[in-house]
Design a protein that fits this description.
By secondary structure, the protein is mainly alpha-helical. 74% of the residues lie in helices and 3% in strands. It is globular, with a radius of gyration of 19 Å.
Length: 285
């Protein structure tokens, strides 16, 4: 959310609510992740629901008219498929979603830009719903592999720790040392120095994690996961910054006090979680 910001950013006014929310939210997140099953699914659904609504709000600010109700339901269904795992259900879901979105376009009064409205609706489903469903896929991965179910909690918590460590490191280093813009046309406040600081912070977090709760990984593997998490997380942050800049909006929402909207908080994880899932699926399990 705050990757690679240089020294000129202040952010002091939101520090107190941001800290309080973090102190409450993080323990709850750890507890629900450890429990898994439907409790974790519902948490992911909450993130997806608010994230899709925020994304469609960005689109509406640009003059697009996404089919919000249909899009939200289809995005949520992505996480349901990830949990219940049915190939027939997945094929039905994709076919039903496409047919329903195009049918909604038929009954609208205006036919102008119908293709664009359908396309942006589907993009919201894929961007937030499909990418977000990898939270559930990663948490449920040990169950499908016949492993200890609690191992999935370690997978998810490792991904979150590394991604948010990179975010925090990028913010702190960028705020103190940032001088060289990373992608000035997208986000002038993000710096190369901050990006390097984020990667280094993630590497340090990986060493700590590997020696505490992520002992299932050899240290070189843990370091590779840290690089994946930090680079992908920064890419996710920049993509959301690009969309907000295009829509001329500062924050995607205000769902999380001191942090902005769900997309502002989970934009990095939407990119890092899928890569970490496939890394575990192909190289760990």
């Amino acid at each position: 959310m705050t990757a690679a910001e240089p020294a000129k950013s202040s952010g002091g006014s939101s520090l107190l609510p941001r800290t309080l929310v973090t102190l409450v939210f993080v323990p709850c997140l750890i507890l629900i992740t450890r429990r898994g099953d439907l409790q974790f699914l519902f948490l992911v659904d909450l993130i997806i629901f608010t994230g899709v609504m925020e994304f469609y709000r960005l689109l509406e600010h640009k003059g697009f008219k996404p089919a919000k109700t249909v899009g939200v339901l289809c995005a949520l269904a992505m996480s349901w498929y990830a949990y219940f795992r049915s190939g027939v259900y997945a094929n039905f879901l994709l076919a039903f979603a496409l047919l329903l979105m195009m049918t909604v376009a038929l009954v609208r009064r205006s036919v102008e830009q119908a293709v664009i409205h359908i396309s942006v609706t589907i993009f919201g489903v894929l961007y937030v719903g499909w990418l977000g469903s990898h939270f559930v896929l990663l948490r449920e991965l040990p169950r499908l592999a016949g492993m200890d179910y609690q191992q999935g909690a370690r997978f998810v918590l490792l991904a979150i720790l590394l991604t948010w460590s990179a975010d925090t490191g990028a913010y702190l280093v960028g705020r103190k040392l940032g001088r060289t813009p990373l992608f000035p046309r997208v986000s002038p406040r993000k710096s190369r120095e901050g990006a390097v600081g984020g990667i280094l912070t993630a590497l340090i977090a990986a060493v700590v994690a590997q020696r505490t709760f992520a002992t299932y990984l050899e240290l070189p593997m843990a370091l590779w996961v840290a690089v994946l998490a930090s680079v992908a997380g920064m890419a996710g942050d920049l993509v959301e910054s690009l969309m907000k800049r295009d829509s001329d909006i500062k924050d995607s929402g205000s769902f999380i006090p001191g942090h902005g909207g769900s997309l502002d908080r989970f934009d990095s994880l939407l990119f890092s979680i899928p890569l970490i899932y496939y890394f575990h699926k192909f190289f760990v399990i």
